[in-house]
Design a protein that fits this description.
Elements (H helix, E strand, L loop, with lengths): L3 H19 L17 E5 L2 E5 L6 E4 L1 H9 L6 E5 L13 H6 L2 E3 L5 H6 L4 E6 L2 E2 L7 H6 L3 E4 L5 E6 L2 E4 L4 H16 L2 H20 L9 E5 L7 E3 L4 H8 L3 E2 L8 E3 L2 H7 L3 E6 L5 H10 L7 H4 L3 E5 H4 L5 H13 L4
Parallel strand pairs: 3-4, 3-6, 4-5, 6-7, 6-8, 11-13, 11-15, 15-16
Antiparallel strand pairs: 1-2, 9-10, 12-14
């Protein structure tokens, strides 16, 4: 689990970012536009979408998506958010005031009824982050109800098929974050604020990359989300890929043309990661996940298990969110301490 010190460090880091952004004068627009002078057309998941007005009652799904809105200073545009209560402690995050001002509509999945009850005019979610044909909740369905939507770029479908359905991801994970910040900044009239965030995130990532040792081999890293029979992990289009590679690691599943997906344990054993990063969320604690990994027979000779190199990040660090740059710095600090 995240320690008190880690939570405080993240809160201070992101809080400083928010204060710095607010202090930039001409570079930051303090208040979003009250209305669009003309329609705004954005490219979202390869499709041009035109919005006739600035949304006034937004519903978001999941923690990373919700915090993108908060980072852009758009909590006053939100009707509420839906999110399970297993995504970590929200009290110490930089956008605690956003959570305090915004209604928690549901701790279950978002659906049509919730959106209509909230009188929402816009939904920000993603494929498998709220949107799901099986649940009858898609951008097309919302369009018929007169509700606009925006799809999280990390979740864009790329035309591939997997055992779990359609594969996702069309751009590098950090590019997905910057794309969504820029698009939403344009839609809500806070373009200066979006660009300020992007500049600072890029600078933070660049500082971390500059500290990665050049004279040593990169440790190989596997992301473990959950799963006993088969591990659920990330491919090259989910947040962990950028977090691992920018932090100085070599992502062992970088060849998977998907975001979040399932692999076989034999693949993990064969690729023999030096480090395993645990995604901390859900009913199974990070400590319980670690106990499973260290006691699972097939993994006993894997380098990360033999040398007890297991690191934990929170769910909100690993999905597309404004926490990604800080997570890169945090993992980089851990990797730098590993013995050669």
């Amino acid at each position: 689990m995240r320690t008190r010190a880690r939570t405080l460090a993240l809160a201070l880091s992101l809080g400083a970012l928010a204060l710095t952004s607010a202090a930039c004068g001409a570079d930051v627009e303090d208040d979003p536009k009250s209305g669009a002078d003309e329609a705004v057309t954005l490219t979202n998941c390869g499709r041009e979408v035109t919005y006739e007005k600035v949304p006034e009652r937004v519903v978001t799904y999941d923690v990373g998506i919700t915090e993108i809105m908060f980072a852009l200073g758009l909590s006053d545009r939100m009707a509420g958010y839906a999110m399970a209560d297993d995504k970590g402690d929200l009290d110490g995050v930089a956008w605690r005031d956003g959570y305090e001002r915004t209604k928690w509509l549901s701790k279950k999945r978002v659906n049509k009824e919730l959106v209509l009850d909230a009188r929402a005019d816009f939904v920000f979610a993603g494929w498998n982050y709220g949107f799901d044909e099986g649940e009858g909740f898609t951008p097309a369905v919302l369009d018929k109800l007169g509700v606009d939507s925006y799809v999280l770029s990390e979740s864009c479908r790329n035309g591939g098929e997997t055992s779990r359905g359609r594969s996702r991801g069309v751009m590098p994970p950090l590019d997905a974050l910057y794309t969504d910040l820029r698009n939403l900044g344009k839609l809500f009239g806070v373009e200066d604020r979006a660009e300020s965030l992007i500049r600072r995130f890029r600078a933070q990532v660049a500082r971390t990359e500059a500290g990665v040792p050049e004279d040593r081999e990169r440790p190989t890293v596997f992301l473990y989300d959950d799963g006993r029979d088969k591990p659920f992990t990330s491919g090259r289009y989910a947040g962990p890929h950028s977090i691992i590679t920018k932090a100085g690691g070599d992502h062992v599943m970088k060849d998977l043309e998907d975001s979040w997906t399932t692999v076989g344990w034999e693949t993990v054993v064969d690729r023999n990661p030096d480090v395993i990063v645990i995604n901390d969320y859900g009913d199974v604690s990070a400590a319980a996940k670690k106990r499973f990994l260290t006691s699972y027979g097939p993994l006993r000779n894997v380098s990360a298990i033999k040398h007890d190199r297991i690191f934990t990040l929170d769910y909100a660090d690993l999905v597309e969110s404004p926490r990604n740059p800080a997570a890169i710095a945090e993992l980089a600090a851990y990797l730098r301490k590993l013995p050669d």
